[in-house]
Amino acid sequence: MDSDLQQLAAPVRAGRGRPAKLTAALIVAKAREMLLVKQPEEITFAMLGRELRVPSSSVYNYFPNREALLAAVAADVFASFHFDDPGPDAPWQQRLRAWLNEIDRFFDRNPVAFRVMATNSQASSGWINVRALLLDVLHGLGYSGRELTLVHAWFEGQVTGMLLIEYHSALNRAIAGDFELDLASASSEAERCDMERRHYLPSIRREEIVSLGYDSLIGALERMVADRAKGD
Questions:
Q1: I need a labelling partner for 13 at 20 to 30 A (CA). Which of 29, 66, 85, 212 fits?
Q2: Segments forming the whole domain that contains residue 18
Q3: Residues above pLDDT 70, as percent of the chain
């Protein structure tokens, strides 16, 4: 399949009414395309067959079920993630911030990644490899066992939740701020304050919000580590 992955960006082309030769890479590429508008559970092999102009049984020749297909999609999506780790000798804040910045860029370029972070209710192997740096940092800070699981779940959830919300929020901010500001027309102080807030929404950049979120997370983790040290 590795050699076929070079064809992922190319559309399925038909010559004289005949579809291109089916490959695992073409199936994965079509599934990625469909995931831009559909949830993973909505995708069926019948749909894929229609899109690729092949019998659905042909898809089963490459993937035994949807879970196997989604795992292949996740592996393909997260294979493009690249992170230049400053190294274990660098301050943990520097390593974590560099990783977070790359996570931000990656999800912004690959929104499908949100939908294949987990397959069959478990973290996909692709996402497990991407988030390995976070576990490494937390281990280095002395976390283990249930405490490690708790802090990891909190940190990962905050990061991915914020990025997912921001993926949809930029357009919403532009729409919310599309009105003529007339503070004199406000019927209350609360309405006046909200009108002023909405007026500035289109100027708020995604990068600003993400940076604030990352600063808050690293700051919170620093305080947790300091409190832990005091307890020891």
A1: 66
A2: 3-78
A3: 90
